[in-house]
UniProtKB/TrEMBL annotation:
It comes from Alkalihalophilus pseudofirmus (strain ATCC BAA-2126 / JCM 17055 / OF4) (Bacillus pseudofirmus). This is YjlA. The chain crosses the membrane at residues 31-50, 70-89, 95-116, 132-152, 158-177, 198-218, 230-249, 261-282, 288-307. Keywords: Membrane, Transmembrane, Transmembrane helix. Pfam families: EmrE. It comes from the Bacteria.
Length: 324
């Protein structure tokens, strides 16, 4: 339950991403800068935190062991995750992006066969691929049903181009985020803490953000002061606070696939908070009965997921289970 509450808190801060990215787009800001500035601003914060905790040496030592893997999974976990989300902000409101993002709930479950699980028994150690947990999938379907009702009301009057431009990139991001996060969990396996892991992934993704910012200068020019300020807020709230909270929560249950899926499901809270944020900050329309029913369904699915995850693990006879 602790990990789920932390994950839900992370979704509050993460919802600011959808609200402010949309705000920057409405002001004429470029998605090149919305994406790259967030990670540029994250670096000094994370460096300071890890340095004060005395973890820089251990982090660099860990990164030197598997530089290729760090580069690849940081690319998926941060670049393929965040660049499409900021791009999609130009095609639709924050509620639509946040709603589509909830496909990451099912994506995390469907990606299970890409990872291995080591089961320690009294007879020895058995290593095998994880399976798709169908008994954990149905609460996620409830959450997605709620998202459907929210979008059903709001999508009236939205063109097919806007729907495709906002849906396809976010679906790609929804699979990339849990893929990069879980692969990094496998790689470090608790040898470094959450702050170190986020810093390492940020540093490894910097070359891509430098390239994107360079293209942004050529194509759009320098960002406005408003975009810089809002990107700074996104970096602090979503890039630092939300990411660290979420990674910390997933790290707590990294050896329990069912609970890990439940923690990832807490990110559905971001659609509720993004909806309310747009309503209050950007003057969005108040939801109708259909929209309110969708929000209630999302919350219900989250509650079911949290209680469902507290059941006994599938391998009850094992002495311990460990994902590697």
């Amino acid at each position: 339950m602790k990990a789920i509450l932390i994950g839900l808190l992370a979704s509050v801060f993460f919802s600011l991403t959808f609200i402010l990215n949309r705000s920057m787009e409405l002001e004429g800001g470029s998605w090149y800068w919305s994406a790259s500035l967030r990670f540029f601003f994250m670096v000094p914060f994370l460096l300071l935190i890890v340095w004060l905790r005395g973890g820089l040496a251990d982090l660099f030592k860990e990164m030197k062991k598997h530089p290729r893997e760090w580069f690849i999974w940081s690319f998926f976990g941060f670049v393929v995750f965040y660049a499409p989300i900021t791009y999609a902000a130009g095609f639709g409101p924050g509620w639509l992006i946040a709603g589509t993002w909830q496909t990451t709930i099912v994506a995390g479950l469907l990606l299970a066969p890409l990872f291995y699980e080591t089961i320690r028994t009294t007879d020895g150690v058995v290593r095998k691929r994880q399976k798709i947990l169908l008994h954990s999938l149905w609460p996620s379907v409830i959450i997605l049903a709620g998202v459907f009702f929210v979008q059903l009301e709001q999508s009236s009057g939205v063109s097919a181009l806007i729907l495709l431009g906002s849906v396809i990139p976010v679906v790609i991001a929804a699979f990339a985020y849990p893929l990069g996060n879980r692969k990094m969990l496998e790689l470090v396996d608790g040898s470094i803490d959450t702050f170190q892991r986020v810093l390492g992934m940020t540093l490894m993704s910097l070359p891509w953000w430098v390239l994107l910012a360079g293209y942004g200068i050529i194509a759009e020019g320098l960002p406005s002061q408003s975009q810089v300020t809002q990107s700074f807020i996104v970096a602090l709230s979503s890039g630092i606070i939300a990411t660290v909270l979420f990674f910390f929560a997933t790290n707590l249950v990294r050896h329990e696939p069912q609970k890990l899926a439940a923690v990832e499901a807490t990110q559905s809270g971001s659609v509720v908070f993004a909806f309310l944020g747009e309503l209050l900050l950007l003057g969005g329309a108040f939801p109708s009965i259909v929209g309110l029913f969708g929000l209630l369904t999302i919350v219900t699915g989250m509650i079911i997921h949290s209680f469902h995850s507290r059941g006994k693990p599938k391998h009850a006879k094992t002495a311990a289970a460990k994902s590697v």
